[in-house]
């Protein structure tokens, strides 16, 4: 399939109409203003994914009017909640010249329901904002399943399948009930929200007939302007854990132990593990091992693991629940993990409902639902990343085989070591994130990494691996790998797109879904 993406330029009349809706201070046309909405991990000389304007609505009604104006002008819209999707294209639009709709001014927490433990948020609400709102309203004993970095949007992260780590993070369970602006400017409420005045809109994940909420994740069928998000009551006990896997040849054993602990219900949420290269980026004192020329040898990697005490792989997890239950679960984990020779379990403290903090490390904060920027701040200045992130069965031999193949591919193409982070998203699968490090002031290096990423998508696609999430620059390529039935999955998505957005106004090209006007 050939895709055409002509650039768009706003007419003076379109700008005038936008200003009439949101005000002059909410339509930004200058380069300096628009450049804030670019991925900082992309080489800045490349203007392929520039917008023509950044527009800041403050209400759903304004979003509806903007959509109608864009439709009249035949100019596409690309939405950005906070624009913090660094490494995946950030807030940049796939089609040059699109109107970039920023939701940073739609930042209200619309509802906090203490009895049923949920909140309702606009798309500009950050993780920091939601937690602040809980504390300000006397609901600090309700906690939020959050990602590693707190500056992003609750809605934006959800709609891109971004991971969070507390129990509701498993299989992305927290989001329930959406309000959506469609391409014709009409307003849709999903699930039980379709019944006026229904009180179960943000409580029940289905409705009557097809379940629509998932259709708006990683798609371009509508613009979500309101979303429910389930919260968790602060548990009686919370035990953050760090478990080591001392040697690389113990990874298979460790993965199989993790699977059984998950299937038995001992491990909940989204535990994750990192190899020593990924861990080293998170500990500045290990910088001497990084940044040199060429990949480290097996002996050097093991030396780094031994000297740091972090292991060849480090596994972070947490336990939440009643005190005796957490103690029992910890005993089960200790017994199971003890089968790994030389392994250790770091469990410094079990926090209680009444002694909730202070938390020391950023992982303790994150698994307690306390937003932080610590991980972001640990990244050296001038360093960014791209990622290839396939979904893999939670089986030791499957993980080891992919790790071997990915390590060899990275070494052969970039002369670097694989930097890996693995999210155990449920009891049966995981997301294996292969990070490609970028030296942002070295355009040649960034281009090599980008080219390597494209090669990885194609190569591993032939081996049966598909990504869970794709960078803006490779969305088409990642989608291309889902080729069963002559790309029946993509063709079905395109059929929906053409039906609900016949002019192709909303985020054309998002995750490889193009309207008919762009397909040849």
Automatic annotation (TrEMBL):
* Keyword vocabulary terms for this entry: FAD, Flavoprotein, Oxidoreductase
| Keyword check for Glycoprotein | no
Tell me the superkingdom of the source: Bacteria
* Entry's Gene Ontology molecular function annotations: D-lactate dehydrogenase (cytochrome) activity; D-lactate dehydrogenase (NAD+) activity; FAD binding
Its taxonomic path starts at: Bacteria, Bacillati, Actinomycetota, Actinomycetes, Micrococcales
A single BP term in Gene Ontology? lactate catabolic process
The protein here is known as: FAD-binding oxidoreductase
Q: Which residues form the FAD-binding PCMH-type domain?
A: 47-234
């Amino acid at each position: 399939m050939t895709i055409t993406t002509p650039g768009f330029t706003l007419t003076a009349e379109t700008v005038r109409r936008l200003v009439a809706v949101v005000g002059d201070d909410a339509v930004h046309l200058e380069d300096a203003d628009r450049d804030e909405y670019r991925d900082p991990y992309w080489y800045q000389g490349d203007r392929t994914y520039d917008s023509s304007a950044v527009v800041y609505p403050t209400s759903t009604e304004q979003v509806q009017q903007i959509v109608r104006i864009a439709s009249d002008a035949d100019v596409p819209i690309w939405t950005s909640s906070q624009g913090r999707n660094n490494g995946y294209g950030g807030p940049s639009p796939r089609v040059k010249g699109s109107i970039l709709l920023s939701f940073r001014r739609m930042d209200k927490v619309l509802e906090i329901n203490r009895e049923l433990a949920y909140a309702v948020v606009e798309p500009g609400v950050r993780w920091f904002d939601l937690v602040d709102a809980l504390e300000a309203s006397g609901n600090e004993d309700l906690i939020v399943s959050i990602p590693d970095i707190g500056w992003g949007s609750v809605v934006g992260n959800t709609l891109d399948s971004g991971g969070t780590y507390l129990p509701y993070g498993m299989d992305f369970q927290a989001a329930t009930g959406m309000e959506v602006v469609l391409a014709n400017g009409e307003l849709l409420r999903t699930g039980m929200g379709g019944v006026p005045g229904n009180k179960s809109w943000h409580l029940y994940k289905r409705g009557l007939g097809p379940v629509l909420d998932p259709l708006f994740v990683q798609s371009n069928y509508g613009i979500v302007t309101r979303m429910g998000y389930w919260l968790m009551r602060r548990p009686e006990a919370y035990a953050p854990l760090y478990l080591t896997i001392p040697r690389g040849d113990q990874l298979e054993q460790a993965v199989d132990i993790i699977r059984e602990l998950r299937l038995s219900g001992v491990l909940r949420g989204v535990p994750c593990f990192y190899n020593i290269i990924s861990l080293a980026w998170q500990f500045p004192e290990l910088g001497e091992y990084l940044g040199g020329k060429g990949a480290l040898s097996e002996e050097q990697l093991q030396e780094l693991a031994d000297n740091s005490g972090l292991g060849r792989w480090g596994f972070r997890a947490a336990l939440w629940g009643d005190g005796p239950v957490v103690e029992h679960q910890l005993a089960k984990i200790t017994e199971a993990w003890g089968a790994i020779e030389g392994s250790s379990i770091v469990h410094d403290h079990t926090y209680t409902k009444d002694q909730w903090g202070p938390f020391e490390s950023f992982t303790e904060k994150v698994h307690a639902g306390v937003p932080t920027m610590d991980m972001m701040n640990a990244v050296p200045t001038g360093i960014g990343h791209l990622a290839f992130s396939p979904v893999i069965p939670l089986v030791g031999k499957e993980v080891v085989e992919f790790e071997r193949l990915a390590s060899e591919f990275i070494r052969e193409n970039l002369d670097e070591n694989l930097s890996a982070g693995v999210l155990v998203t449920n009891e049966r699968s995981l997301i294996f994130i292969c990070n490609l490090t970028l030296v942002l002031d070295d355009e040649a290096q960034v281009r090599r990494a980008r080219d390597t990423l494209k090669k990885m998508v194609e190569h591993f696609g032939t081996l049966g691996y598909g990504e869970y999430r794709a960078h803006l620059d490779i969305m088409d390529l990642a989608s291309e790998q889902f080729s069963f039935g002559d790309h029946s999955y993509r063709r079905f998505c395109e059929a929906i797109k053409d039906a609900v957005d016949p002019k192709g106004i909303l985020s054309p090209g998002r995750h490889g879904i193009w309207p008919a006007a762009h397909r040849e």
